[in-house]
Amino acid sequence: MKRNQWLSLFTLVCVLALTACSSEGxxxxxxxxxxxxxxxxxxxxxxxxxxxxxDEGLEVELQTTWGGDKTMxxxxxxxxxxxxxxxxxxxxxxxxxxxxxxxxxAQLTQTDGTFLVAxxxxxxxxxxxxxxxxxxxxxxxxMPQMVGEYVLKQHGIDPHEDLNLIQNIDFANxxxxxxxxxxxxxxxxxxxxxxxxxxxxxxxxxxxxxESGHVPYTVFMAKQSFLKDNEDTAKRFTSAIYKAQTxxxxxxxxxxxxxxxxxxxxxxxxxLSSSIERYKSQGSFAENPxxxxxxxxxLKAIMEEAGELPEDIPYEELVNTTIAEDVMAE
Length: 330
Known about the structure:
This protein starts with a helix and ends with a helix. It has 2 domains: 28-110 and 215-329, Periplasmic binding protein-like II (D-Maltodextrin-Binding Protein, domain 2); 114-212, 3-Layer(aba) Sandwich (D-Maltodextrin-Binding Protein, domain 2), CATH 3.40.190.10. It has helices at 3-25, 42-49, 52-55, 68-76, 88-95, 143-154, 174-179, 192-199, 208-212, 224-229, 231-250, 253-260, 269-281, 293-305, 315-318, 322-329; strands spanning 28-34, 58-64, 82-85, 102-109, 114-118, 134-136, 164-166, 185-189, 203-207, 218-223. The protein is α/β, with parallel strands linked by helices. Belongs to the bacterial solute-binding protein SsuA/TauA family. It is found in: Periplasm. Residues 1-22 form the signal peptide. Keywords: Signal.
């Protein structure tokens, strides 16, 4: 046999050997970028802690990227394979004419996750109490801010005319700014909202999630090319999330709090439990990973109301339900 033939045979044997090793004992690595750290994302942490990803042969690396813009940058620059972020970001990317659009493939939460926190207690809060107040807002064009504006307008309040709207604080620094004296009201996720209440730094007076209806608030998304080249990985990933979603629906908040506690080391477990109960009671955790068309329409209506919808992009272009449907059928 000629030398080149020997080399070709040797290369083939090596490739087959490596493939065999990978299928027997190797795990597929998946990097997730989450937009913030919140008990709102409890199903994700359950999937990690209960070994659902590992059971699917996945080794998941989780990073918190603090803000929709930073999260999407991580995804587009391949610092992450999957992003957990609001669906509005996929619309922004597509509207810029992306050659490799970002596709929503597994929904995690289905309502807004923020609560209106006041500096002073108010057992008889009315939305009109906000008029003329200093309101510490969120990032322009992000889901918390857009949903907040949508809800305020539903109550006859123009956020840009009737409030002193403060929007020059970075997302990660908003809680600290509020405790330092900036703003009379602020939108906060759990468990931060309940933690503020326990510490006397603020008081929950209303829920934006209860007011705004179902939206694809946080969704797992990936570049179209990733889903095409790694369809099996995406299915296994979604399967792990679906198991966690089912677990969340079936188990009491106290048990879930025990499982996710390692992700919130500075938060009391009783407070974690009450935060989970608050989200469960208002239906914030999606029961399955399918993002339906009605939710997509609601999202676009909220974006349009906020003046942030750059283009009316059809549901079919940026949402893949086939992966979730296949997982649920199995």
